[in-house]
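For concreteness, we quote verbatim a single protein encoded this way:
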Amino acid sequence: MSRPTLKDPITPIRIELDDQIRGMAMALRHWFLVEDAETLQIRAGLLPPKTGKPGKFDKAFRVLAVSALPPQVVRMKPESPMTTLHFMQDVYDDGVMRADPWRWWFAWIAVELISRTGPDTEGNTTKRFILEDPSVEAVRVLSPRWLAANPTRLMFVEAEYHALLSAALDTTKSADTTGGGRTISDRVLASATHMDHSFIKAMATEAGKLAAAITLRLRERAERTM
């Protein structure tokens, strides 16, 4: 096989849109500053250090460590370029919710998944991750903290209950079965008995919406640069 010479035409390499979005997500995740919430609480003197001497620690402050924070506190690095604000616009303000630590945590998860598996146009990849991945089981157990972090989130849970109750009270639908042979009334009773399941589902839905929004903004920028 002969080596190409300077006279040979150079075939341009076309990067597919999905690969372009993945690359932009890889670059974006570099600008996230991620710290364990527990580490920050130790630094603030709310918890004793894990190793070494206890140091300055007031046990009376320990109750303040029980907070509505996610396991990691996420924010953008101070030196982040202005473009990161565009990509994160739906995180810190979507017209209804204002940014809180949970939304930044969801954004971090979403960007990590997009950089690994590609665009999350519908948010389903991120939603499944929150619902099923073993690494966030502790987060699912503490899902009421997500609800408590922002009162607006109660609307998400109320909407789901309202839809179920409306269907159950409709006599023409109450006998209908859903997945697994359960009636709608059965689903309502199960949701009321296991409220945490409703919290987790609503939490995953919020994360999925953020992932879809971030994907859209990455796609818009990628299309302009192709």
User: Anything to note?
Assistant: Residues 17-50+57-225 form one domain. Residues 21 and 218 are 6 Å apart (CA to CA).
